[in-house]
Amino acid sequence: MCKDCGQKFTDDRWKAVEYTRDWSRRQSHPHLCEHCQTWTVTAKQQAEARAEEHERQEREQERLRQEAEDRAAAQKAGWFSRFRT
Length: 85
Known about the structure:
- The protein has 2 helices and no strands.
- Helices cover 67% and strands 0% of the residues.
- The chain has one domain.
- Residues 44-85 are annotated as: Disordered.
């Protein structure tokens, strides 16, 4: 029985989730029916994609902030050099 929706497993699903020592054939969520497993895997992939996009945006914002600080420092240095001469 599926732990998420409570649907009874079909014979095909029982065969798919049988214990096997071959890790490449093991199910990622053997306690879920095929529909719930598909939904869970898709949701996980989407969450990972959103996290990667968020990290990319943070890196871009940090790069832009650093560039702005560098420009401000260069401009500030230019003003001080005028007064020293």
